[in-house]
Amino acid sequence: MNLRRPLIAIDWGTSSLRGARLGTSGQVLEARELARGILSVPPGQFEAVFHELFGDWLQSPDALCLISGMAGSRQGWQEAPYCPCPAGFAELGQHLLWLQPGRIALVPGLSCWGTDTLHTPDVMRGEEVQIFGALQLTGRDSALLVLPGTHSKWVQVQGGRVTRFQTFMTGEVFALLSQHSILGKTLDLGSAFDDSVFLQGIARSQQAGSVLHHLFAVRTLGLFERLSAAQLPSYLSGLLIGEELRAQTHAHTQHSAGPVMVIGSQALTLRYTLALQHLRIPCQSLGAEATWAGHFALASSC
Amino acid sequence: MNLRRPLIAIDWGTSSLRGARLGTSGQVLEARELARGILSVPPGQFEAVFHELFGDWLQSPDALCLISGMAGSRQGWQEAPYCPCPAGFAELGQHLLWLQPGRIALVPGLSCWGTDTLHTPDVMRGEEVQIFGALQLTGRDSALLVLPGTHSKWVQVQGGRVTRFQTFMTGEVFALLSQHSILGKTLDLGSAFDDSVFLQGIARSQQAGSVLHHLFAVRTLGLFERLSAAQLPSYLSGLLIGEELRAQTHAHTQHSAGPVMVIGSQALTLRYTLALQHLRIPCQSLGAEATWAGHFALASSC
Question: Which residues of B are less than 8 Å from A204 in CB distance?
C-alpha cells in the first residue's frame, strides 16, 4: 500500500497531543508528543495552536493531514458528528469533516446503540483509528479488541467493520478509589506492580457477587494486614480489570474469532495480557504503532 | 422487657454522634444529635468530650451507658475487638469492652470471613445494634436485612444470630462518581429525586454486563440529551443500588425468610423499598428506632 503524498497523522486527545509525519509507504519520518491536549487550548484557538505546533510540517504543499481524537468533539476544534456502527474504513472516510477540503480533516468518532429501553448510546473518539490500524497490521478482519485506559473500550469487529462496542469506566474508577475514597488511606500508590497479588484480585473478581462488595476487601485486607500498603494497588487493579473481563469473557466465547487484541500502553497491555492468560483466553498486544497504521490506512482509502 | 436502671444509649459514628436517654421500659426520654463524629475528636480526648456532652445524663448514679459505632475502632476511644460471626445478643454481650466496669461499655463490631483464597474479612461497627433492635421490634429471628449508606451492609440472620454479611461501597462510589468523575460534569446534584428515572437505572443494572459499563450511560444519556442534568443523579443512584440488589437477589431467593428488612434514613429506605418492590421482592422498613431498641435489648441481656 502506498500513498501518493505525505501524511501528517495527529492524535489529539483530552490531555495530550501526538503527531507523526509519515512517508508515502507509511514509515514514520518524525514524531512529536506534546502536553497540549484539548483542555489546554482556549476556544477558538485550535487552528492557531495547530499551526504553531505543526506549521513546519504543513509547508509541504501536497501533504494530507488527518486529526483523530477529542479535537473532533464539542469541546474541540470543531464537532465531527459520530459515525454510526457498523462502520469500516469506507464509512469513516465518508464521515471525515474537512477543515480545508482535500487537505486537513477531522476523523469522526464512532457511536453505537444499546438494546436497553433508552437505547443508550456508546461513543469513542480516537480509538477507531487504532482499531483499524491494528486490523491492518495483523491482517485480520474479525476480532474482539480491548483498548484499556481511563475509559476502556471493548470492540467487536466483523468483516472489517466495527459492529458494536462497550465502554468501561475502569481506569477512572481506579483513580477515584485510590485517590479520593477510604481505600486510598491504606494503599501506597507509589509501589511497584505485584503480578501475583494482581492475579488474586482477578480471581476474586470472577466470583459470584458484585464488584461494589469485592472492592471493600481492599479496606479489610489492609486493616487485617493480609496485604501490605504496597500490594493493595495491584489487588485493586486486579479487582477492576477482572470485573471488566468477567463481563467480556462470554463475548469472546460467543465470538471466538482468534486471540483478543489488546491495544495500548505497555504498562496496561501487560496487565490485560496477564489477566487474559490467567483466564485461559488467548491474546496478542499492540502499542502506539496501531495509531499511525490506522491513519495511514484511512488516508489510503480517502 | 424491663431494665432495672436507666440506659444511656450512644451511637458514635465517623461523622456524627447520637445519644438517647432511655427509661426502664425502653422509652426515649431525651435524645441528642451532634456533629461530633470521631473524626472531630483529637486522640486521647474521647473521655473528656464524652463527659462534656453527656455529663448531665451520667449524674444518674445507677445509669448504664452503651456506646456503639466507630468509637470502638482503632481511630476511636479505645479499640473493641470485633466479635466474630455467628453472633447474637449473647456473643455481643460477652464481647463488650468495659471502660468503667458495670457502667460504661463499648459495643464491639462484628466480623465474618469470606470463602475466597484470602479468607477476606468483612466488618461492621454500629450496624449490629440496629440489626438486633430491628429483630426485637419485629419479633423475627431470621431475616435478610439491608442497612444502606456510605458502606451498605447486607446481613443474614438465622436463629437470632448474624451468620454472615457483606459490605457494598455503594454510597461512597455514588459520591465519588457524582463529585469527582467525568459524570459529575453533566449532572445536577441539587435536583429532586425522580422515581421513574431511578427505576430505569434499576432495570438497566439487572441486565447482563458490568456496572463499570452501565455507569458510562450516565455520560452518554446526558451527551445525547436523553436524560436531563436533573434526572441523571436518580439514574446513577438506580444503577448503583440496582447492582447491589442484583448481587443479593439470589441470597433472598435462597434465604426466603419473609420480607427483606431495610433499616436506615427515610431518604434511603424509600429508594431501596422502591427498587425491591420493582423487582417483586417483599420488604419492610425501619428507621432510627431500631438503634435505641437494639441498645435497650443488649442492655437487658448483659
Answer: 116, 118, 120
List of chain B residues whose C-beta atoms are within 8 Å of the C-beta of residue A149: none
What predicted TM-score, i.e. pTM, was given to this entire model?
Answer: 0.94
**Contact B62/A at CB under 8 A:** no
Q: Do B176 and A181 touch (CB under 8 A)?
A: yes
A210, B209: Cβ pair inside 8 Å?
no
Instruction: Give residue limits of the domains in chain A.
Output: 7-137, 168-286
Q: Which CATH number fits domain B7-139+291-301: 3.30.70.920, 1.10.238.10, 3.30.420.300, 3.30.470.10?
A: 3.30.420.300
Place of cell 493531514: A65
Q: What pLDDT, in 10s, does the model give residues B233-271?
A: 999 999 999 999 999 876 666 656 689 999 999 999 999
What is the tens place of the pLDDT at every residue in A64-116?
999 999 999 999 999 999 999 999 989 999 999 999 999 999 999 999 998 88
Q: Express each pLDDT in B60-96 by its tens digit.
A: 989 999 999 999 999 999 999 999 999 998 999 999 9
Contact criterion met (CB < 8 Å) for B120 and A204: yes
Measured from the Cβ of residue B9, the count of other Cβ atoms closer than 10 Å reads 28
